[in-house]
Amino acid sequence: MQNWTLLHAVSDLAAAPLNRIAEVLRDATLPFVQASALIIFTEECTGRPQKKAGDEGVVSRVSITELDRLGSALPGEGPWRTSAVIAGQEREVLALGFAPSQALLVLTDPSVAGGSEGEEALRLLDYLWRLTARRIQEKVTDAPPSYLLESRAASAERIRVTAELIDQHSTTLETLLAALRSTSMNDAAARASVTDLAVKALVDLRTVSDRTSDLVEEPVATAFERLREDLRPLMHFSNIDMQFIEPPANGRALPGEVAHAARAVVRGLVLAIAEQPDVRRVRAQWDCDGENLLINVRDDGLGALTPDSPSIARLQQRVQAVDGRMSLEVMQGWGADISVVLPLDPPASPAGDVAAWDLAPRELEVLQLLTAGQRNRSIAGALHISENTVKFHVRNLFRKLNVRSRTEAIALAHSAGLR
Questions:
Q1: Residue 299: beta bridge partners?
Q2: Which GO molecular function annotations are given, in alphabetical order (predicted)?
Q3: pTM for this one?
Q4: Residue 205 half-sphere exposure, CB side, CA atoms within 13 Å?
Q5: d(CA 321, CA 131)
């Protein structure tokens, strides 16, 4: 009976979409290991690095910082039993890593049988986790258009939420620091101690912001090196000479979904080219112009690649998912030359969306600065007005845009093309 249970679990995991893979893994592991919640943390999924199932009190509050800290302390791939702060509370956890993608699995409040039965349960857990981690790798590597679109939307939303948190907590902590540094307070030791705590909290908050940026952006040189590693097996087992022309090391960082799309497109082009006769050399080049990632792939075959082939049509869909363009020039007897342009910023919506809000000139200025991530104090300084006046304009913006928070206002402004 247990063998059939395991086979069904393997089948379900092999077919699970990314947005349900945590739920499917939890269902698969419950017969072997009981836990209040299951959390997967993988930086390969730029849009949704956390995949969670179980106790809502845990999965709704667990943070990237907590998972990052636990993953850094993991002595190996596990399973590792320890205690850690998860969802703001010290808990018993069972953690497993996956070295190829640096993914992390965390089970909170785990219950495992003792003796040989428990050892067998942990082996099954490890097996199912490795299968899941590889499934995630494969899905991200494929980078279908639906994944790229979801990733772009989720990445933008996380940046907006982080900007709001920074605005809220930085102002509070800066006020606290000003009060504690006041000369009217005579308890110097207490003042110094609390000041240190507040400074540390500010640093932690900035670290969360930086960490979020790291998850949604990838240095262009790093992204290109990952492409090279992905294509290394093809270079090793084929007779094709693969040449790489690297982008400038100081080029603009790529949004995560653009980096994934770029690697997927180049891999797909190289595989399509490798199927053509008499191809001996392929050259892949990346460059940046500050606004776009420019990709060029060229081969020395007979020019048999056609724009209407199924493989090229699929790649066109991936390029279009991130608002890019791809052109194919085939030279009979000389090979193919493919150019791809991937914008690094989402497209702007028609300006009519903004006009419909009927904003006063000053309100539009405040909204633009708000959308750029500026805090009230910074907006006041930029516009030479008081913070109270900024708050007044923000309240008016909420009313005219029919939103209830800065996050909603920023999201709506982004959708209308404001930058």
A1: 282
A2: DNA binding
A3: 0.51
A4: 20
A5: 28
Respond yes or no on whether the N-terminal peptide bond of residue 79 is cis (omega within 30° of 0). Answer: yes
Task: Using the Cα atoms of residue 217, residue 222, residue 224 and residue 229 in order, give the sign of their dihedral.
Answer: negative
Residue whose token pair is 């960082």: 253
pLDDT of residue 1: 41
User: In DSSP terms, which residues pair with 96 in a beta bridge?
Assistant: 105
Tell me how far the alpha carbon of residue 57 is from its chain's centroid: 23
Assigned token pair, 322:
């991130």
Stated length of the chain: 419
| Most trustworthy range by pLDDT among 47-56, 109-118, 169-178, 400-409 | 109-118
Q: What is the DSSP string of 203-226?
A: HHHHHHHHHHHHHHEE-HHHHHHH
Sign of CA dihedral 253, 259, 265, 267: positive
Q: What pLDDT is recorded for position 179?
A: 65
**Other CB atoms closer than 10 Å to residue 239's CB: what's the count?**
8
Give whole-number Cα distances, 237 to 101, 234, 264, 274, in Å: 23, 5, 20, 11
Higher-pLDDT residue of 411 and 387 is 387
- Alpha-carbon distance 133 to 40, whole Å? 9
